[in-house]
Amino acid sequence: MNQCVAAFDGDPAVEPQAFRNCLGQFATGVTVVTANIGDELVGLTVNSFASVSLSPPLILWSIGESSTSFAKFSGAANFAINVLAEDQILLSRHFGKSGGDKFSTVPWTKGKNGAPILDGVAAFFECGTESQHRGGDHLIVVGRVWRAVQFERNALLFAQGRYRIASDHPGDQITRVAS
Questions:
Q1: Please, which residues have CB within 8 angstroms of residue 84's CB and are 6 or more apart in sequence?
Q2: pTM of the full predicted structure?
Q3: Is the model's pLDDT at 2 over the cut of 90?
């Protein structure tokens, strides 16, 4: 049994901010999901990104029904997941705001599936929408990855309500073997 005193122990439906704080204990990567829908570029910051399967290569992310981009992304056939690098906090904040042309001041290139690929990211995944599922007030989008590209950059993280960076843990004694 954990001997620590709990900061919260209750019903998340009654205390949503405390529930949000509990969720913040889990560090996530920071991504920007982008799409080109009828020649209109859309993008938003998302930390609900996760891998689903290696075979076939599937990922997922979710978008809230209250998002101004909900209607566009819920109908998108293709999209890209841009994994932000540790020096892209401003880009995360830029795509975290609603409205306006988010791409006019941001360097990007058109991906093979038409979705914008942001410059300087740690990795990106070009995907086709495989399926969608309702989950409370969110839509969970499962994407089939058609192209994955990784760069030698450190990823930006978010935990406990703040941006973070990853570093090696001093307790990790695993010896890396070159392949």
A1: 29, 30, 31, 32, 91, 92, 118, 121, 122, 155, 156
A2: 0.90
A3: no
